[in-house]
Amino acid sequence: MKIKKISVYQKDLPLSEPYWLSGGRLKFEVLDATFVKIETDDGCTGWGEGTPWGHTYVPAHGPGIRAGIQTIAPVLIGADPRQSERIEYVMDKTLPGHPYVKSPIDMACLDIAGQTAGLSLPDLLGGRYETATPVMSSVSSGSPEAMVALIEKYRERGYRGHSAKVGGSDTDLDIQRIRHIEQHRLVDERILYDVNRAWTRREAAIVMNAVADLGVTFEQPCETTNDIKAVRALTTSPISVDETLVSLNDMVRIAHEGIAEVVNIKINRVGGLTKARRIRDVAITHGIQIYVMATGGSVMADTEAAALAQSTPDEFRLGCWACQDMLTVDVAPGTGPRTKNGHLLVPDLPGLGFSPDESLLGDPSAVYRS
């Protein structure tokens, strides 16, 4: 089996309403999605998606994915897509860095590998667990009352996990947000307070120590891993590392130096499922619990993240995310895993298990062929 054709599609995915994070520092309204279709010489087709959360959230750029694929695609023509680690090696040698560029190609190749082996993505990634993964809502920054109101809307849809966006120079407001939300938290709910790098070390210490009695978990309180390590020494609050977990080396450092109790593996950010699986395994080895999420995107990106989550033991798997619930566009109507009572379950179908409706993607922006 050899790759004979790679088609690249661009699609705007509007959010249902403007979204603020990092204490209102960043605003997002439309996601720039890239879809990749890989076709083989024996008629098999695999699909992948790469959708950064805008252009200012992390070093990932929608047009940059398509530019990077222009560099990578020619050397992949003629390769066996089932050999995911050889594909990974070739991509890394051809374009060092830029992991977000390689993620949709990795996903499409694993889709093909699963189809030919008759295995679902969770089984390819180590073995599926039949328990569905709790979905975390994503609660935009706002007043304490407005944030609780958003949580209430998600509760009505069965959500019992919430990622509440805090952070900013007004530490008193963040303390009010956290205490107000915790006052209204249900007994069976998990709430993660996501700072998205917005605090300085001083601000992080002030807020985290002010609410230490609540035992809540804070995600990415500061800009760098060094900052988080410094704050780790000043507070007893559990910490999750998100944006600065980019590579396997980052995960090894986090585990070895005791920087965090939780990590959030973003598939597109780390370069795809092949790399994400290794990061997941190191975390488990060191007793670190895990969220698995897409950086953004359609049901395809959500399925990719949910697949890694569903191959993770229950005691380490804290939750995933369903960005599809925040979009006004659906590229695969009626197919793929959908949120049910606040959970995602990946069906036991070969590979990704579904494909997008090509008529909704329009014409390819680029095609590479043998």
What does this structure look like?
With 370 residues, the chain is α/β, with parallel strands linked by helices. It folds into two domains: 3-118 and 359-369, Enolase-like, domain 1 (2-Layer Sandwich); 123-344, TIM Barrel. 36% of the residues lie in helices and 23% in strands. The chain contains 13 helices and 13 strands. The chain has helices at 62-76, 84-94, 99-117, 121-124, 144-155, 171-183, 201-210, 225-232, 248-256, 267-270, 273-285, 299-310, 358-361; strands spanning 3-21, 26-40, 45-50, 133-139, 161-165, 190-194, 217-219, 239-241, 262-266, 289-293, 317-321, 343-344, 366-369. The strands form two sheets. An eight-stranded parallel β-barrel has the order 4-5-6-7-8-9-10-11, surrounded by four helices. It has a four-stranded antiparallel β-sheet with strand order 3-2-1-13. The longest helix is centred in the first third of the chain and has 19 residues, at 99-117. The chain is globular and about 60 Å long.
